[in-house]
Amino acid sequence: MHTQVFTYQQEFELESGEILPEFQLEYQTAGKINEDGSNIIWACHALTGNADVMDWWSGLFGDNKIFNPDEHFIICANVLGSCYGSTGPLSVNPRTNKPYYHSFPSITIRDMVNALDLLRVDLGISKIHTLIGGSLGGQQALEWAVKHPTLAENLIIVASNAKHSPWGIAFNETQRIAINADPTWKEERDDAGINGLIAARSIAMLSYRNYETYETTQMDDDEDKVNNFRASSYQQYQGEKLTKRFNAYSYWTLSKAMDSHNLGRNRGGLKEALKLIKSYTQVIGVNTDVLFPVSEQRFIARYVENVTYEEINSTYGHDGFLVEFNKLAKAIDAFFKQKNRKKLIYDTGC
């Protein structure tokens, strides 16, 4: 994929009323836009994801995949607040010439989408063939589809929701409590809260997976063991692994943004907001997801007008949307085939 940077050199007002004096979004593309601009696939990444969608969603994006650069123009941008080249807490505030750190303003999913839409306009994109996202990425895609109902011809939402739940907010707050408990979190330095981030990620893993996942993957064979359990080392490993590519500031910022997600805010409620979506929509749930349970995806499907719902079976819980490539690909392929069948029927008048 080809990496580029979009710079917006004007003041950007956030939903909170705070102002970013300017911002940049780092994004990646693959393939070429065809003559009529009908082959654009826009992917929205999850909380600790990045713009390299062909890496973290390699089962769906790449050569010979459903979304491939031979047929499609693929684009994915790092969101505001992240730490992969877009403006975030470690970026330099042009008004102070110092990193934002704790002074980085609160952002919402709508702020993220407003920034993405400015990138879209700058690229001259007026129509998206398929807008797709999972988890926090699904929240962005839904917000975008509500804000600009005719932008995306197709909308695919995986393991996400129309409003973040008290359960999900509680998980995020517990992680932020862990970060805040790190004595270094109050300091102004790039690695502030790093040990708290290890604990936060370990907590998060319990919501990304589930009881069955740990029974299957982290069970010890030694029945006489009384310490140094496999599950314990796994939790430590996952926490430490994240600190090599992420920082506590962005984790805090993006988890807060996830909490803010509510399609119905200032739109007359969730049901009315979902009815605004005009895209041909597929909603996919993972049957063992405890963080975004399938009741949330079924709710979306109930109120979007032109929609199909698919539920995949997985032992991986919420992480199923990043693991079950074959099942996701099969579901998405069926979605497009069903749409094409409907179009054929309408075109022939049968």
From TrEMBL:
Residues 44-324 form the AB hydrolase-1 domain. It holds the Pfam family Abhydrolase_1. It is an enzyme of class 2 (transferase). One of its GO terms (biological process) is methionine biosynthetic process. Pathway: Amino-acid biosynthesis; L-methionine biosynthesis via de novo pathway; O-acetyl-L-homoserine from L-homoserine: step 1/1. InterPro entries: AB_hydrolase_1, AB_hydrolase_fold, HAT_MetX-like. It comes from the Bacteria. It catalyses: L-homoserine + acetyl-CoA = O-acetyl-L-homoserine + CoA. SUPFAM superfamilies: alpha/beta-Hydrolases. One of its GO terms (molecular function) is homoserine O-acetyltransferase activity. Gene3D superfamilies: alpha/beta hydrolase. Transfers an acetyl group from acetyl-CoA to L-homoserine, forming acetyl-L-homoserine. Homodimer. PANTHER family: HOMOSERINE O-ACETYLTRANSFERASE. This is Homoserine O-acetyltransferase. The lineage of its organism: Bacteria, Pseudomonadati, Bacteroidota, Cytophagia, Cytophagales.
